[in-house]
């Protein structure tokens, strides 16, 4: 359990840092992926123009967050499924070996 | 770390594609070979890919007042090596480029190079170095995942700096400017990513230590010690 507590403590510290920073000043909380645009504008004095546009842009922030949520949900589903499957497998194996040790393997109802 | 669509000049797009594509192609070849030889590893491969899916979708607020996202590539790099992880990464990057307008198809080569290649290679090497020195396995995973995340953003800064050198000060000056956007923002996120990766790794050790031995992720001695400690 120790690692769980350490991880939890790190996440709590992370949230605390967020709470402190957001209470200490006004921040936009914009995406760092979008910020290089401004830096590039500064560096090139606005002379650089993107030469290619995204093939498709989510039509609204709602739809964008839907797609992000789907991405996360799909990923967590797979992780949870396989960890659960492994857990069940390990349990079944342990049960089978303990039955064998007790020597009552034949006591199981016939299928 | 997603460089936006169209935000790298054409010659740099070509350059990063030329570096990335051979790695991804070789990774796909290794992945294919591994899947044929060893069906047992498939679920863990899916879990590693899914972990990248989840973590790279989470945009978390950082101490700099902006948001960024972890990469999740550490687990894949440790379990399957950096080559195969580059394939997992490019899948996520293509999804985000097409459906989320996040990153882009022209910058795919550059983004794959930072997130799918340099990050995982760094994580893999850190993990192997730690294991050689008998560092606790979970600390090794923590360090590997954290550095894989952080280095990804450093590489993005280098890529942008190379493409947009400052008029005065050149590449170094613009490298600092891009680092200011990415580096500090990423530190707390990288730490969280390291911790979460270590936790996931603990469950994998508990449930499938046999596969970990097969993948040569840890020696039998280390595995036995960890199992005893958690029992």
Q: Mean of the pLDDT scores of chain B?
A: 94
Shape of chain A: elongated
In CATH, the topology of chain B is named: Arp2/3 complex 21 kDa subunit ARPC3
Assembly type: heterodimer
Integer-rounded radius of gyration of chain A? 26 Å
The biggest beta sheet of chain A, please? none
CATH domain class of chain B? Mainly Alpha
State the separation between the terminal residues of chain A, measured CA to CA. Answer: 40 Å
Describe the strand arrangement of the main beta sheet of chain B, using strand numbers: 1-2
The major beta sheet of chain B can be summarized as: 2 strands, antiparallel
Secondary-structure-based class of chain A equals: mainly alpha
What share of the residues of chain A does DSSP label as strand, in percent?
A: under 5%
Give me the strand/helix succession of chain A. HEHH
What is the CA-based Rg of chain B, rounded?
18 Å
Mean pLDDT of chain A: 90
The CATH architecture classification of chain B is Orthogonal Bundle
